[in-house]
Write a structure and sequence with these properties.
Layout: H1 4-32, H2 40-55, H3 69-81, E1 84-85, E2 91-92, H4 95-124, H5 129-141, H6 143-149, H7 154-170, H8 174-185, H9 195-205, H10 210-238, H11 244-251, H12 260-274, H13 281-298, H14 306-328, H15 340-357, H16 364-388, H17 403-411, E3 418-420, H18 425-431, E4 439-441, H19 446-453, E5 462-467, H20 473-481, E6 484-492, E7 495-502
Parallel strand pairs: 3-4, 3-5
Antiparallel strand pairs: 1-2, 5-7, 6-7
């Protein structure tokens, strides 16, 4: 029978974790409830998922440069929560129902991430019990995590699965660590960046014994290699002219390393994004200084054994990851998600070090609770703003608000209407509807569009779509020069539509 004191302690642990998860869940459900349109990349992924859910194309034919698991998860959610049947028995998906359904599993993955980080903190910082709660609270209120929670970027499930892999490795569940790492790879190829972390954990948990390291590595590698081979086979079954691997390289090819004078704006941009990893910029800066100050103060004496090794592993990973991205990779805000968990674990342990050193101070418990409440009070407004989509990070941030009504307007036009669309390809592809009978055409330049438009014999009406952040004058001038009559027929939100009539 469990000791009453221990039972009481376990109940307090559970209630504390539940409280932290409830805070994070409420903000993430708030984010899910926002009336927000998809970011262009989200619209692309949603279109692939919708094609699978409605039309049964589970091989996701088309120009896809990402593995399919996240798209399958979104498609399954669409089938469960969004797909309906028309009177003629044909499946369909209303665009707003599709938005909500696709986002639901991502929100729950973000909520479960809180518990995963707690479990990693419990495994790594065994003697510093408060660190696990602090880590859970930091990820619960992280504006970065919240801003992406109700989006359908592949990075969401990538982060969730690689964090599960780290958790399993910390508890020496090597085969499970490999399986979750493979699942992350099936979401996005960048999961392989976590291989050094998993190998590092193996090294730490084997007490740096090379002989003891062999078995865990083998048990991790087997599911990872099996997953890679299965993905190659899946891509081969699609029978596309260009494989997802070739497209991934083409779409993410840096071309060259950044020059010295080009680094400053890139550093400033990522610093602005990174300011929301743990809280508003000031809080993140203060916690960064806290990490450095705590480790200097401890002079590593409080970090003997596993915590010291783990902290070194987190620091090396963050340093290399950030450095490589600054000089060679596109700087998207969502790319910072892969360092979120190591940053939070370092911060939580640094705070624990300071708490240990502050034990000599009178009323230290009161001070500790006051600091936690202060952090929550300062951070909650920013976390809520992240849920509102009002920060510079996250999804579409309202840029394409109204594109659903634009899609509805175009879908109501005559059968076979020609839509010239130089700028809204992915977004309009989703919002024009599941079963659109319109002919959307893309041209990279006005000259190429005019070349084909003047010889087009189809009598269907033609439309030219313009978002207000693009300059349509070169296109409209070319159309006028080619004797097209131009008439504005739609002007709502941030979008214009011109009807084109050849003379």
């Amino acid at each position: 029978m469990m000791n009453p004191q221990r039972q009481k302690h376990s109940l307090c642990e559970l209630l504390t974790l539940v409280f932290v998860i409830l805070i994070g869940s409420s903000i993430r459900f708030h984010a899910l409830g926002q009336d927000m349109r998809f970011h262009p990349d989200e619209a692309l992924f949603a279109t692939f998922a919708r094609t699978a859910a409605v039309q049964g194309d589970w091989l996701l034919h088309g120009a896809l440069d990402k593995p399919p698991l996240t798209l399958y998860i979104s498609a399954a959610a669409m089938r469960l929560f969004g797909v309906t049947t028309l009177d003629n028995g044909v499946l369909t998906l209303e665009i707003h129902a599709g938005e909500f359904a696709a986002r639901v599993p991502h929100v729950f993955a973000s909520i479960l991430l809180i518990a995963c980080v707690y479990a990693i903190g419990k495994a790594v910082y065994r003697r510093q019990s408060s660190a696990r709660y602090t880590a859970a609270l930091l990820v619960s209120l992280s504006p970065m995590a919240i801003a992406f929670s109700a989006t359908i970027f592949t990075d969401n499930f990538l982060l969730f699965f690689v964090t599960l892999s780290v958790w399993m490795a910390c508890w020496k569940r090597w085969a499970w660590a490999g399986m979750w790492l493979m699942a992350g790879f099936w979401c996005k190829q960048q999961a392989l960046l976590y291989v050094p972390i998993i190998v590092g954990i193996c090294w730490i948990e084997s007490n740096k014994n090379k002989q003891a390291l062999i078995n865990p590595i083998i048990r991790i590698i087997i599911p990872v290699f099996a997953g890679i081979i299965m993905l190659f086979l899946w891509d081969g079954l699609r029978g596309q002219a260009t494989s997802l691997w070739d497209l991934a390289v083409a779409n993410n090819q840096p071309g060259r390393l950044e020059l010295i004078y080009e680094l400053q704006p890139r550093i400033e941009l990522w610093a602005r994004y990174a300011g929301y990893l743990i809280g508003p910029g000031l809080i993140t800066t203060v916690l960064g200084i806290t990490v450095i100050g705590a480790f200097i103060l401890a002079w590593w004496k409080q970090l003997e054994g596993n915590p010291k090794a783990f902290n070194i592993l987190w620091i090396i990973f963050i340093s290399v990851y950030v450095s490589v991205h600054l000089v060679a990779i596109n700087l998207y805000d969502r790319y910072l998600l892969l360092i979120l968990v190591p940053v939070i674990l370092l911060s939580a342990h640094a705070i624990e070090i300071l708490r240990v050193y502050a034990r000599r101070i009178r009323n230290v418990q009161v001070i500790g609770w006051a600091l936690i409440m202060g952090y929550m009070i300062v951070t909650l407004p920013t976390s809520w703003e992240a849920g509102d989509g009002k920060l510079i990070i996250g999804g579409d941030q309202g840029r394409h608000q109204g594109i659903d009504e634009l899609g509805q307007f175009l879908d109501q036009q005559r059968l076979g209407a020609i839509i010239y669309d130089p700028w809204l390809s992915w977004e309009l592809g989703y919002y024009i509807g599941t079963w659109s009978d319109k002919r959307r055409v893309y041209y990279p330049s006005p000259e190429l569009m005019i070349r084909d438009a003047i010889v087009e014999r189809d009598p269907a009406p033609r439309y030219f779509v313009v978002p207000n952040w693009e300059n349509p004058e070169p296109w409209l001038s070319a159309l006028s020069s080619a004797s097209f009559s131009i008439r504005e027929v739609y002007s709502e939100f941030s979008f214009l539509v011109y009807e084109l009539v050849p003379n």
